[in-house]
UniProtKB/TrEMBL annotation:
<keyword id="KW-0808">Transferase</keyword>
<dbReference type="GO" id="GO:0046983">
    <property type="term" value="F:protein dimerization activity"/>
</dbReference>
<dbReference type="InterPro" id="IPR017205">
    <property type="entry name" value="Sig_transdc_His_kinase_ChrS"/>
</dbReference>
<keyword id="KW-0902">Two-component regulatory system</keyword>
<feature type="coiled-coil region">
    <location>
        <begin position="177"/>
        <end position="207"/>
    </location>
</feature>
<protein>
    <submittedName>
        <fullName>Histidine kinase</fullName>
    </submittedName>
</protein>
<keyword id="KW-1133">Transmembrane helix</keyword>
<keyword id="KW-0418">Kinase</keyword>
<dbReference type="InterPro" id="IPR036890">
    <property type="entry name" value="HATPase_C_sf"/>
</dbReference>
<dbReference type="InterPro" id="IPR050482">
    <property type="entry name" value="Sensor_HK_TwoCompSys"/>
</dbReference>
<feature type="transmembrane region" description="Helical">
    <location>
        <begin position="149"/>
        <end position="171"/>
    </location>
</feature>
<dbReference type="GO" id="GO:0000155">
    <property type="term" value="F:phosphorelay sensor kinase activity"/>
</dbReference>
<dbReference type="InterPro" id="IPR003594">
    <property type="entry name" value="HATPase_dom"/>
</dbReference>
<keyword id="KW-0472">Membrane</keyword>
<dbReference type="Pfam" id="PF07730">
    <property type="entry name" value="HisKA_3"/>
</dbReference>
<dbReference type="InterPro" id="IPR011712">
    <property type="entry name" value="Sig_transdc_His_kin_sub3_dim/P"/>
</dbReference>
<dbReference type="GO" id="GO:0016020">
    <property type="term" value="C:membrane"/>
</dbReference>
Amino acid sequence: MTDQSAVARLEVWRRRLDLALTYVPYGALACSALLVPLTGDGHPHLPYRYIGLLVAASVGWMLWWINLHPGWADDRRRMTIFFAGLVVLIYLLVWSSSLFGFFAWTGYLFTAYALRGRGPRAVGGTLVAVATAVSQAGGFQELGVGDSWGYFAVVLAFNLTIANAMTFLTTMTHEQHEKRRAMIEELAEANRRLEDALRENAGLHAQLLAQAREAGVHDERQRMAGEIHDVLAQGLTGIVTQLEAADAAGGGSAGWRRHLDAAKGLARESLTEARRSVQALRPQTLEASALPEAIGEVVTGWAARNDVRAELITTGTPRSLLPEIETTLLRTAQEALANVARHAGAGRVALTLSYMEDVVTLDVRDDGAGFDPAAPRSEASFGLAAMRERLLRIAGSLEVESEPGAGTAVSACAPAIAIGAAA
Protein backbone atom coordinates (compact mmCIF):
# COMPACT_ATOMS: atom_id res chain seq x y z
CA MET A 1 0.00 0.00 0.00
CA THR A 2 1.37 3.39 -0.95
CA ASP A 3 1.37 6.42 1.33
CA GLN A 4 -1.12 8.16 -0.95
CA SER A 5 -3.62 5.30 -0.60
CA ALA A 6 -3.09 5.28 3.19
CA VAL A 7 -3.99 8.98 3.33
CA ALA A 8 -7.06 8.39 1.19
CA ARG A 9 -8.25 5.42 3.27
CA LEU A 10 -7.73 7.33 6.54
CA GLU A 11 -9.72 10.26 5.21
CA VAL A 12 -12.51 7.99 3.96
CA TRP A 13 -12.84 6.25 7.33
CA ARG A 14 -12.89 9.58 9.18
CA ARG A 15 -15.65 10.90 6.94
CA ARG A 16 -17.65 7.69 7.35
CA LEU A 17 -17.42 7.94 11.14
CA ASP A 18 -18.44 11.59 11.16
CA LEU A 19 -21.34 10.82 8.83
CA ALA A 20 -22.45 7.84 10.96
CA LEU A 21 -22.57 10.06 14.05
CA THR A 22 -24.92 12.44 12.24
CA TYR A 23 -27.61 9.72 12.26
CA VAL A 24 -27.69 9.67 16.07
CA PRO A 25 -29.73 12.94 16.31
CA TYR A 26 -32.54 11.34 14.28
CA GLY A 27 -32.97 8.66 16.93
CA ALA A 28 -32.80 11.19 19.78
CA LEU A 29 -35.35 13.42 18.02
CA ALA A 30 -37.69 10.46 17.44
CA CYS A 31 -37.49 9.44 21.11
CA SER A 32 -38.22 12.98 22.26
CA ALA A 33 -41.15 13.33 19.86
CA LEU A 34 -42.64 10.05 21.17
CA LEU A 35 -42.16 10.92 24.85
CA VAL A 36 -44.03 14.21 24.61
CA PRO A 37 -47.50 12.72 23.80
CA LEU A 38 -46.91 9.46 25.67
CA THR A 39 -45.96 10.98 29.00
CA GLY A 40 -47.93 14.17 28.73
CA ASP A 41 -45.05 15.70 30.58
CA GLY A 42 -42.59 18.33 29.50
CA HIS A 43 -45.11 21.15 29.73
CA PRO A 44 -45.65 21.62 25.98
CA HIS A 45 -46.26 25.23 24.99
CA LEU A 46 -47.54 24.34 21.54
CA PRO A 47 -50.20 22.00 20.20
CA TYR A 48 -48.88 18.65 19.08
CA ARG A 49 -49.41 19.47 15.42
CA TYR A 50 -47.05 22.45 15.66
CA ILE A 51 -44.56 20.38 17.56
CA GLY A 52 -44.83 17.82 14.76
CA LEU A 53 -44.06 20.56 12.23
CA LEU A 54 -40.97 21.58 14.22
CA VAL A 55 -39.83 17.95 14.34
CA ALA A 56 -40.41 17.59 10.59
CA ALA A 57 -38.55 20.84 9.95
CA SER A 58 -35.61 19.61 12.05
CA VAL A 59 -35.52 16.30 10.19
CA GLY A 60 -35.68 18.04 6.82
CA TRP A 61 -33.01 20.57 7.85
CA MET A 62 -30.53 17.87 8.89
CA LEU A 63 -31.40 15.64 5.95
CA TRP A 64 -30.89 18.44 3.40
CA TRP A 65 -27.67 19.92 4.77
CA ILE A 66 -25.93 16.75 5.97
CA ASN A 67 -27.13 13.48 4.49
CA LEU A 68 -28.18 14.65 1.05
CA HIS A 69 -25.14 16.91 0.64
CA PRO A 70 -22.19 15.27 2.43
CA GLY A 71 -19.78 17.23 0.25
CA TRP A 72 -20.85 20.45 1.98
CA ALA A 73 -19.03 19.36 5.15
CA ASP A 74 -15.87 21.13 3.91
CA ASP A 75 -17.73 24.34 3.08
CA ARG A 76 -17.38 26.51 6.19
CA ARG A 77 -19.98 29.07 5.09
CA ARG A 78 -22.68 26.46 4.41
CA MET A 79 -21.95 24.60 7.62
CA THR A 80 -22.18 27.82 9.64
CA ILE A 81 -25.63 28.48 8.16
CA PHE A 82 -26.67 24.90 8.89
CA PHE A 83 -25.54 25.05 12.51
CA ALA A 84 -27.21 28.42 13.12
CA GLY A 85 -30.52 27.05 11.79
CA LEU A 86 -30.12 23.89 13.84
CA VAL A 87 -29.54 25.91 17.04
CA VAL A 88 -32.73 27.89 16.34
CA LEU A 89 -34.71 24.66 15.86
CA ILE A 90 -33.22 23.17 19.06
CA TYR A 91 -34.28 26.22 21.11
CA LEU A 92 -37.77 26.17 19.58
CA LEU A 93 -38.16 22.48 20.37
CA VAL A 94 -36.88 22.94 23.95
CA TRP A 95 -39.27 25.91 24.34
CA SER A 96 -42.14 23.74 23.12
CA SER A 97 -41.20 20.91 25.54
CA SER A 98 -38.31 20.27 27.91
CA LEU A 99 -38.29 16.61 26.78
CA PHE A 100 -36.51 17.70 23.60
CA GLY A 101 -33.42 18.08 25.77
CA PHE A 102 -32.49 14.57 24.58
CA PHE A 103 -32.26 15.98 21.06
CA ALA A 104 -30.58 19.20 22.21
CA TRP A 105 -27.69 17.22 23.63
CA THR A 106 -26.84 15.79 20.19
CA GLY A 107 -26.01 19.32 19.06
CA TYR A 108 -22.51 18.64 20.41
CA LEU A 109 -22.01 16.14 17.58
CA PHE A 110 -22.79 18.81 14.98
CA THR A 111 -20.48 21.24 16.76
CA ALA A 112 -17.57 18.98 15.88
CA TYR A 113 -18.94 18.08 12.44
CA ALA A 114 -19.96 21.48 11.10
CA LEU A 115 -17.67 24.01 12.79
CA ARG A 116 -13.91 24.49 12.35
CA GLY A 117 -11.53 26.02 14.84
CA ARG A 118 -11.59 26.35 18.61
CA GLY A 119 -13.42 29.69 18.68
CA PRO A 120 -16.47 28.72 16.57
CA ARG A 121 -16.70 25.36 18.32
CA ALA A 122 -16.58 27.02 21.75
CA VAL A 123 -19.43 29.34 20.76
CA GLY A 124 -21.46 26.47 19.28
CA GLY A 125 -20.83 24.26 22.33
CA THR A 126 -21.95 27.07 24.65
CA LEU A 127 -25.23 27.55 22.75
CA VAL A 128 -25.93 23.82 22.89
CA ALA A 129 -25.01 23.73 26.60
CA VAL A 130 -27.49 26.54 27.41
CA ALA A 131 -30.30 24.73 25.55
CA THR A 132 -29.47 21.46 27.29
CA ALA A 133 -29.33 23.15 30.72
CA VAL A 134 -32.71 24.82 30.13
CA SER A 135 -34.30 21.45 29.27
CA GLN A 136 -32.72 19.82 32.34
CA ALA A 137 -34.02 22.68 34.53
CA GLY A 138 -37.59 21.95 33.39
CA GLY A 139 -37.87 24.18 30.35
CA PHE A 140 -38.16 27.90 29.80
CA GLN A 141 -41.44 28.07 31.74
CA GLU A 142 -39.70 26.88 34.93
CA LEU A 143 -37.04 29.60 34.86
CA GLY A 144 -37.68 32.26 37.49
CA VAL A 145 -39.91 29.99 39.58
CA GLY A 146 -38.63 29.60 43.15
CA ASP A 147 -34.93 28.94 43.33
CA SER A 148 -34.83 27.60 39.75
CA TRP A 149 -32.17 30.14 38.76
CA GLY A 150 -29.72 28.66 41.24
CA TYR A 151 -30.48 25.17 40.01
CA PHE A 152 -30.17 26.36 36.42
CA ALA A 153 -26.80 27.96 37.16
CA VAL A 154 -25.44 24.69 38.55
CA VAL A 155 -26.79 22.68 35.62
CA LEU A 156 -25.49 25.27 33.15
CA ALA A 157 -22.01 25.18 34.72
CA PHE A 158 -22.03 21.39 34.46
CA ASN A 159 -23.07 21.50 30.80
CA LEU A 160 -20.58 24.23 29.97
CA THR A 161 -17.84 22.13 31.52
CA ILE A 162 -18.90 19.16 29.43
CA ALA A 163 -19.19 21.36 26.33
CA ASN A 164 -15.75 22.86 26.79
CA ALA A 165 -14.20 19.46 27.50
CA MET A 166 -15.83 17.92 24.43
CA THR A 167 -14.86 20.90 22.31
CA PHE A 168 -11.27 20.71 23.49
CA LEU A 169 -11.03 16.95 22.97
CA THR A 170 -12.67 17.15 19.57
CA THR A 171 -10.44 20.00 18.47
CA MET A 172 -7.33 18.19 19.68
CA THR A 173 -8.44 15.02 17.88
CA HIS A 174 -9.01 16.89 14.62
CA GLU A 175 -5.71 18.74 14.95
CA GLN A 176 -3.85 15.49 15.54
CA HIS A 177 -5.65 13.97 12.59
CA GLU A 178 -4.61 16.89 10.40
CA LYS A 179 -1.03 16.58 11.63
CA ARG A 180 -1.02 12.86 10.89
CA ARG A 181 -2.45 13.47 7.46
CA ALA A 182 0.12 16.21 6.77
CA MET A 183 2.88 13.90 8.00
CA ILE A 184 1.67 11.07 5.79
CA GLU A 185 1.47 13.44 2.83
CA GLU A 186 5.01 14.64 3.54
CA LEU A 187 6.19 11.04 3.73
CA ALA A 188 4.40 10.29 0.47
CA GLU A 189 6.10 13.26 -1.16
CA ALA A 190 9.46 12.19 0.26
CA ASN A 191 8.92 8.66 -1.05
CA ARG A 192 7.97 10.04 -4.45
CA ARG A 193 11.12 12.11 -4.56
CA LEU A 194 13.15 9.13 -3.41
CA GLU A 195 11.64 7.00 -6.18
CA ASP A 196 12.43 9.74 -8.70
CA ALA A 197 15.98 9.94 -7.35
CA LEU A 198 16.35 6.15 -7.58
CA ARG A 199 15.08 6.19 -11.16
CA GLU A 200 17.46 9.03 -11.96
CA ASN A 201 20.32 7.18 -10.28
CA ALA A 202 19.46 4.07 -12.26
CA GLY A 203 19.57 6.13 -15.44
CA LEU A 204 22.89 7.67 -14.44
CA HIS A 205 24.22 4.24 -13.56
CA ALA A 206 23.23 2.91 -16.96
CA GLN A 207 24.79 5.96 -18.59
CA LEU A 208 28.02 5.49 -16.62
CA LEU A 209 28.10 1.83 -17.61
CA ALA A 210 27.66 2.79 -21.24
CA GLN A 211 30.40 5.39 -20.95
CA ALA A 212 32.65 2.89 -19.19
CA ARG A 213 32.07 0.37 -21.98
CA GLU A 214 32.82 3.03 -24.58
CA ALA A 215 35.95 4.09 -22.69
CA GLY A 216 37.02 0.46 -22.38
CA VAL A 217 36.52 -0.08 -26.11
CA HIS A 218 38.45 3.11 -26.86
CA ASP A 219 41.31 2.15 -24.53
CA GLU A 220 41.47 -1.32 -26.02
CA ARG A 221 41.56 0.13 -29.52
CA GLN A 222 44.35 2.46 -28.47
CA ARG A 223 46.23 -0.44 -26.92
CA MET A 224 45.85 -2.59 -30.01
CA ALA A 225 46.87 0.30 -32.24
CA GLY A 226 50.01 0.78 -30.16
CA GLU A 227 50.76 -2.93 -30.14
CA ILE A 228 50.28 -3.18 -33.90
CA HIS A 229 52.58 -0.24 -34.44
CA ASP A 230 55.20 -1.34 -31.92
CA VAL A 231 55.18 -5.02 -32.84
CA LEU A 232 53.88 -5.65 -36.34
CA ALA A 233 54.95 -2.41 -37.98
CA GLN A 234 58.43 -2.55 -36.48
CA GLY A 235 58.76 -6.24 -37.33
CA LEU A 236 57.60 -5.76 -40.91
CA THR A 237 59.92 -2.80 -41.31
CA GLY A 238 62.83 -4.89 -40.08
CA ILE A 239 61.88 -7.75 -42.38
CA VAL A 240 61.69 -5.43 -45.37
CA THR A 241 65.05 -3.91 -44.45
CA GLN A 242 66.71 -7.33 -44.18
CA LEU A 243 65.16 -8.55 -47.43
CA GLU A 244 66.35 -5.42 -49.21
CA ALA A 245 69.84 -5.97 -47.78
CA ALA A 246 69.75 -9.62 -48.87
CA ASP A 247 68.69 -8.58 -52.36
CA ALA A 248 71.51 -6.08 -52.50
CA ALA A 249 74.03 -8.70 -51.31
CA GLY A 250 73.10 -11.08 -54.11
CA GLY A 251 72.06 -14.71 -53.93
CA GLY A 252 74.40 -17.35 -52.61
CA SER A 253 76.70 -15.02 -50.66
CA ALA A 254 77.26 -15.21 -46.93
CA GLY A 255 75.67 -11.76 -46.46
CA TRP A 256 72.57 -12.85 -48.36
CA ARG A 257 72.05 -15.83 -46.07
CA ARG A 258 72.66 -13.76 -42.94
CA HIS A 259 70.08 -11.15 -43.93
CA LEU A 260 67.59 -13.85 -44.93
CA ASP A 261 67.99 -15.61 -41.56
CA ALA A 262 67.54 -12.27 -39.79
CA ALA A 263 64.31 -11.64 -41.73
CA LYS A 264 63.00 -15.10 -40.77
CA GLY A 265 63.85 -14.46 -37.12
CA LEU A 266 62.08 -11.11 -37.17
CA ALA A 267 59.01 -12.70 -38.74
CA ARG A 268 58.84 -15.40 -36.06
CA GLU A 269 59.43 -12.89 -33.27
CA SER A 270 56.79 -10.50 -34.64
CA LEU A 271 54.27 -13.33 -34.98
CA THR A 272 54.89 -14.41 -31.38
CA GLU A 273 54.57 -10.87 -30.05
CA ALA A 274 51.40 -10.28 -32.09
CA ARG A 275 49.79 -13.30 -30.48
CA ARG A 276 50.85 -12.12 -27.04
CA SER A 277 49.44 -8.65 -27.77
CA VAL A 278 46.06 -10.15 -28.70
CA GLN A 279 46.10 -12.07 -25.41
CA ALA A 280 47.19 -8.90 -23.53
CA LEU A 281 50.31 -10.62 -22.18
CA ARG A 282 53.68 -9.11 -21.34
CA PRO A 283 56.36 -9.15 -24.04
CA GLN A 284 58.23 -12.45 -24.13
CA THR A 285 61.56 -10.81 -23.30
CA LEU A 286 60.14 -9.44 -20.03
CA GLU A 287 58.76 -12.86 -19.09
CA ALA A 288 62.27 -14.35 -19.05
CA SER A 289 64.40 -11.32 -18.09
CA ALA A 290 64.39 -8.16 -16.03
CA LEU A 291 63.83 -4.83 -17.73
CA PRO A 292 67.55 -3.93 -18.19
CA GLU A 293 68.31 -7.35 -19.71
CA ALA A 294 65.21 -7.20 -21.92
CA ILE A 295 66.14 -3.75 -23.28
CA GLY A 296 69.75 -5.00 -23.67
CA GLU A 297 68.54 -7.91 -25.84
CA VAL A 298 66.51 -5.49 -27.97
CA VAL A 299 69.52 -3.19 -28.38
CA THR A 300 71.86 -6.06 -29.28
CA GLY A 301 69.49 -7.52 -31.85
CA TRP A 302 68.73 -4.13 -33.35
CA ALA A 303 72.42 -3.24 -33.65
CA ALA A 304 73.20 -6.54 -35.38
CA ARG A 305 70.37 -6.18 -37.88
CA ASN A 306 71.03 -2.55 -38.74
CA ASP A 307 74.84 -2.62 -38.45
CA VAL A 308 74.81 0.37 -36.11
CA ARG A 309 76.81 0.71 -32.90
CA ALA A 310 74.39 0.74 -29.96
CA GLU A 311 74.89 0.33 -26.23
CA LEU A 312 72.79 0.38 -23.07
CA ILE A 313 73.94 1.96 -19.81
CA THR A 314 72.02 1.23 -16.60
CA THR A 315 72.35 3.50 -13.56
CA GLY A 316 70.88 3.19 -10.10
CA THR A 317 69.61 0.01 -8.47
CA PRO A 318 67.35 -1.99 -10.81
CA ARG A 319 64.16 -3.34 -9.24
CA SER A 320 61.00 -5.02 -10.45
CA LEU A 321 58.33 -2.49 -11.40
CA LEU A 322 54.68 -2.85 -12.32
CA PRO A 323 54.29 -4.87 -15.54
CA GLU A 324 52.56 -1.95 -17.27
CA ILE A 325 55.51 0.35 -16.53
CA GLU A 326 58.16 -2.14 -17.69
CA THR A 327 56.19 -2.98 -20.84
CA THR A 328 55.79 0.72 -21.68
CA LEU A 329 59.52 1.41 -21.27
CA LEU A 330 60.43 -1.63 -23.38
CA ARG A 331 58.03 -0.55 -26.15
CA THR A 332 59.44 2.98 -25.95
CA ALA A 333 62.96 1.64 -26.48
CA GLN A 334 61.80 -0.46 -29.44
CA GLU A 335 59.94 2.45 -31.04
CA ALA A 336 62.83 4.86 -30.52
CA LEU A 337 65.29 2.43 -32.14
CA ALA A 338 62.85 1.79 -34.99
CA ASN A 339 62.65 5.54 -35.65
CA VAL A 340 66.44 5.74 -35.66
CA ALA A 341 66.65 2.92 -38.20
CA ARG A 342 63.99 4.43 -40.46
CA HIS A 343 64.86 8.12 -40.36
CA ALA A 344 68.11 9.01 -38.59
CA GLY A 345 70.85 7.33 -40.60
CA ALA A 346 72.89 7.30 -37.38
CA GLY A 347 76.25 5.64 -36.79
CA ARG A 348 75.95 5.38 -33.02
CA VAL A 349 73.08 5.12 -30.54
CA ALA A 350 73.29 5.28 -26.75
CA LEU A 351 70.52 4.26 -24.36
CA THR A 352 70.55 5.10 -20.66
CA LEU A 353 68.15 3.41 -18.20
CA SER A 354 68.20 5.26 -14.87
CA TYR A 355 66.55 3.99 -11.68
CA MET A 356 65.91 6.81 -9.21
CA GLU A 357 63.94 6.96 -5.98
CA ASP A 358 60.56 7.95 -7.42
CA VAL A 359 60.97 7.72 -11.18
CA VAL A 360 62.70 5.66 -13.81
CA THR A 361 63.93 7.29 -17.04
CA LEU A 362 64.98 5.97 -20.43
CA ASP A 363 67.10 8.24 -22.65
CA VAL A 364 67.80 7.35 -26.30
CA ARG A 365 70.37 9.51 -28.14
CA ASP A 366 71.66 9.15 -31.67
CA ASP A 367 74.09 11.07 -33.87
CA GLY A 368 71.87 10.91 -36.91
CA ALA A 369 70.39 13.52 -39.24
CA GLY A 370 67.95 14.88 -36.68
CA PHE A 371 64.73 16.71 -37.55
CA ASP A 372 62.60 19.67 -36.65
CA PRO A 373 60.06 18.47 -34.01
CA ALA A 374 57.67 21.25 -35.06
CA ALA A 375 57.64 20.16 -38.71
CA PRO A 376 54.95 17.62 -39.79
CA ARG A 377 56.43 14.14 -40.27
CA SER A 378 53.63 11.63 -40.68
CA GLU A 379 55.33 8.33 -39.81
CA ALA A 380 57.74 9.67 -37.19
CA SER A 381 54.99 11.79 -35.66
CA PHE A 382 52.78 8.74 -35.21
CA GLY A 383 55.61 6.86 -33.52
CA LEU A 384 56.27 9.73 -31.12
CA ALA A 385 52.53 10.13 -30.47
CA ALA A 386 52.22 6.39 -29.73
CA MET A 387 55.10 6.57 -27.24
CA ARG A 388 53.62 9.65 -25.58
CA GLU A 389 50.16 8.06 -25.26
CA ARG A 390 51.64 4.91 -23.74
CA LEU A 391 53.55 6.93 -21.17
CA LEU A 392 50.54 9.10 -20.35
CA ARG A 393 48.51 6.00 -19.50
CA ILE A 394 50.99 5.20 -16.71
CA ALA A 395 51.30 8.86 -15.57
CA GLY A 396 54.61 9.25 -17.42
CA SER A 397 55.94 11.81 -19.90
CA LEU A 398 58.00 12.02 -23.08
CA GLU A 399 60.43 14.75 -24.12
CA VAL A 400 62.02 15.02 -27.59
CA GLU A 401 64.99 17.22 -28.46
CA SER A 402 66.30 17.37 -32.01
CA GLU A 403 67.40 19.65 -34.79
CA PRO A 404 68.51 18.98 -38.34
CA GLY A 405 72.09 17.71 -38.47
CA ALA A 406 72.51 17.47 -34.68
CA GLY A 407 70.94 14.11 -33.86
CA THR A 408 67.96 13.33 -31.66
CA ALA A 409 67.43 12.77 -27.94
CA VAL A 410 64.28 11.06 -26.65
CA SER A 411 63.69 11.03 -22.88
CA ALA A 412 60.92 8.92 -21.33
CA CYS A 413 60.03 9.30 -17.65
CA ALA A 414 57.73 6.96 -15.67
CA PRO A 415 56.88 6.50 -11.98
CA ALA A 416 59.08 3.89 -10.31
CA ILE A 417 56.28 1.90 -8.66
CA ALA A 418 57.57 -1.43 -7.42
CA ILE A 419 55.33 -4.49 -7.40
CA GLY A 420 55.42 -4.77 -3.59
CA ALA A 421 54.62 -1.05 -3.15
CA ALA A 422 51.62 -1.32 -5.50
CA ALA A 423 50.21 -4.21 -3.51
